[in-house]
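hiii so um. not sure if this is the right channel but i have a protein structure encoded as tokens and i wanna go backwards to a sequence. like what aa goes where. can anyone help
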């Protein structure tokens, strides 16, 4: 997972490639609705009391509020789940009894990361296959319509591919799950991602933002082990290609 800046507007790209679930041949090919047996909630469905749009906002609020690092003496340890290379920090910032578990991509330079996580059989999994957030840090305010136009140009026009599989079963039509949020605010936590990158934004700062992405809400998985694989590509220009290649080894209890 990487962050990029496009001046004069500071846009944080948080491209995340993740997976849907074991979509069998009976799964609907329409992202708006899903069959009864589909492990993925359709875009028009309410999942765990929220819409896809509302869950996308909640995911960003979690990502920005969760501490990104800890300091002990002169040593700094990165602790944010999206910088984690193994899954050891995957539960940071999450409630163990929550109905939904958040996962995402990686800031690893080559985009290849394998994580192991443990969840319960009562939890759904929510994640973006690719996503981007545009906020007002350093640039002042913007209108909803202006931000939507920027997201069209910066994000949607650059998506090349997004593929995924669960337990060896390919996921069809993953790119259909496009969700754009309304304007929202997130609150920065202590030792946040901005501070990790050298931008002095203090904890408690409330930041207006708008996001876009390919988002998936996975229904609770059966107990046991599951392997999620996902890969996505975005092409900004001939010299800048973004690739994310992720594997999640999931234990469900």
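sure thing!! here u go:
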């Amino acid at each position: 997972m990487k962050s990029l800046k496009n001046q004069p507007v500071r846009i944080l790209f948080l491209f995340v490639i993740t997976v849907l679930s074991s979509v069998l041949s009976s799964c609907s090919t329409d992202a708006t609705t899903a069959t009864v047996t589909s492990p993925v909630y359709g875009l028009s469905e309410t999942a765990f009391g929220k819409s896809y749009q509302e869950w996308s906002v909640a995911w960003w609020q979690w990502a920005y509020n969760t501490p990104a690092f800890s300091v002990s003496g002169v040593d700094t340890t990165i602790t944010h789940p999206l910088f984690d290379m193994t899954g050891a920090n995957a539960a940071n910032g999450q409630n163990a009894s929550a109905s939904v578990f958040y996962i995402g991509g990686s800031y690893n330079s080559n985009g290849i990361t394998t994580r192991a996580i443990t969840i319960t059989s009562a939890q759904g999994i929510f994640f973006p296959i690719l996503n981007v957030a545009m906020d007002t840090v350093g640039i002042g305010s913007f209108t909803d319509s202006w931000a939507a136009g920027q997201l069209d140009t910066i994000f949607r026009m650059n998506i090349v591919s997004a593929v995924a599989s669960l337990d060896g079963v390919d996921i069809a039509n993953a790119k259909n799950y496009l969700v754009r949020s309304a304007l929202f605010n997130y609150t920065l936590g202590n030792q946040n991602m901005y501070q990790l990158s050298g931008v002095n934004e203090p904890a408690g700062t409330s930041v207006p933002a708008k996001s876009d992405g390919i988002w998936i809400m996975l229904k609770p998985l059966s107990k046991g082990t599951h392997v999620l694989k996902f890969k996505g590509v975005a092409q900004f220009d001939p010299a800048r290609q973004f690739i994310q290649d992720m594997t999640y080894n999931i234990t469900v209890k």
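oh and The first strand starts at residue 11 and ends at 13.
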